[in-house]
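#structure-requests
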Amino acid sequence: MSIEGREHFEAALDSFEGTVLAVSHDRAFLRRFAERVVEVRAGLMRVFPGGYDDYIERAGRRWGTPGGALAKCV
């Protein structure tokens, strides 16, 4: 996506009052917009309240790895 397209998309998300389900590998995008993270792993779905960094910290504790190490893997 171009920078202009991304800026337009993010502005639209900022003004949207509904719910959006986004699947993304863009950590900056997730840090800016995620209010909860849903993880699907091994046929199970887990909901982590909070943003992307909260997810990294909590999931790291759940898996027994430091959050920083998990962030490098994700």
